[in-house]
Amino acid sequence: MYNAKSLKAEEFISDQEIKETLAYADANKDNISLIDEIIEKAKLGKGLTHREASVLLACENEEKLQEIYDLAKKIKEDYYGNRIVLFAPLYLSNYCVNGCVYCPYHMKNKHISRKKLTQDEIRKEVIALQDMGHKRLAIELGEDPVNNPIEYVLDSIKTIYDIKHKNGAIRRVNVNIAATTVENYRKLKEAGIGTYILFQETYNKESYESLHPTGPKHDYAYHTEAMDRAMEGGIDDVGLGVLFGLEMYRYEFAGILMHAEHLEAVHGVGPHTISVPRIKRADDIDPSAFDNGISDEIFAKIIALLRVSVPYTGMIISTREAKEVRAKALELGISQISGGSRTSVGGYVEEEPEEDNSAQFDVSDRRTLDEVMKWLIDLNYVPSFCTACYREGRTGDRFMSLCKSKQISNCCHPNALMTLKEYLVDYASPATKEAGLKLIERELLTIPKEKVREVTIQHLKEIENGQRDFRF
Ligand code: SAM
């Protein structure tokens, strides 16, 4: 039944294969020679299969776990250096016809405020985001063919890209909307989207169906096969994720790696990103009602193991997580984070009063973008607003070959430093600016090619003189 190349959800995410994988992992969780062999393979930096990775996830040997964490840190450093890409979610509409039991936007929720931004309101939200310093957004919408048709999404993307306010610009719009048709994916591609993001929520078909009892999202196969349709529609950067807490994490972990293997086997390119959301309190939603919640320790273990299993896939953590959890996650493999986020519709222009709540979930990390920037700089990370790859056409397998050729330090690193400089000149508080400028001085020395370093130094001066948007 299991076939990574099949286009049928139940064959590339075979329930039987996952169950056999978990049994194999249980049987070998103390098999130190096998565990050593898998760790040795992971050290080659080419990833692990879902079976191999599942054995490591089942392993509880402290010494071996430490080796895995050390390796995750090393792989992260080798492929991503110390750069962290920043983005913000932008909620356009919370109208929704689905019945997802963990989400406050579910149709039966009558007390949440339903809101949909007009193009003019979107402009105001985006200006507020630009004034914070953001360059990269992920737009979020509930599923509602009448209130949120694809035309609304396309108009909104155009509005966002067209806004030029002071030195601000949104240079990459990622899209997180419900599974749709090849034709609609093609339209999104033509509108110039970055990554198409769709969380699977759970790979377990039976749980999936009971967690999505009503609405179009109920259809497991249509949802699970969405990334294949997106790729058929020409989108080659797709972002996977599961909502941890809904199902057994070991099942989800095997499932998401099988999904990545499937995309690689069929389309020749794995997922561009993997997100790791955990279920949060929200209007109408009590996370303790879901009994598969995972501890911070297991969460860290999952992140480290995803890092070593799919080294070329970026990993995202949102403000669902608190500062301390995010710090640990950054060390172990996360390469993109959101900052200064609002999860309500219209929340950037105006914070909502409690009785008018449209938010999707409670945010744990409530710091401003500038506070997050300063924190990252103090931890010796280079916060980056770079969007160069996608704008230079380095998407899908072309991005992967950049990673594989290890040219990232001659390309991504200078781009990160130049976008950081833009932020420091245009938006930073004095303390962030001071710390950031020192960081740039230090980090310039790590650009390997002398010529690239010289051009970067030149551009950094030009940024001070008012020019913007340089990239390699
Ligand atoms: N409506 C779209 C769909 O069906 O995929 C996507 C957008 S939804 C705004 C983004 C994600 O938020 C969902 O895929 C889900 O995983 C997550 N989410 C929903 N309820 C949540 C909760 N209570 N806590 C944390 N994340 C939640």
Structure description:
With 472 residues, the protein is an alpha/beta fold. The protein has three domains: 10-76, no CATH class; 80-388, TIM Barrel, CATH 3.20.20; 406-464. 48% of the residues lie in helices and 9% in strands. It is built from 20 helices and nine strands. Strands 1, 2, 3, 4, 5, 6, 7, 8 and 9 form a nine-stranded parallel sheet that branches. It starts with 8 loop residues before the first helix and ends in an 8-residue tail after the last helix. 51% of the residues are buried. The mean pLDDT is 96. S-adenosylmethionine binds next to loops. The site of S-adenosylmethionine has 21 residues, from loops.
What distinguishing features does this structure have?
9 strands, alpha/beta, 3 domains, 472 residues
Specify the CATH homologous superfamily of the largest domain: Aldolase class I
Distance between the termini: 46 Å
CATH architecture of the largest domain: Alpha-Beta Barrel
SSE topology string: HHHHHEHEHEHEHHHEHEHEHEHEHHHHH
Described by strand count, sense and barrel closure, the largest sheet is: 9 strands, parallel
Tally of distinct domains:
3
Number of helices: 20
CATH class of the largest domain: Alpha Beta
Based on CA inertia axes, which overall geometry fits? globular
Considering DSSP H and I runs of 4 or more, what fraction of the residues is helical? 40-55%
Structural class: alpha/beta
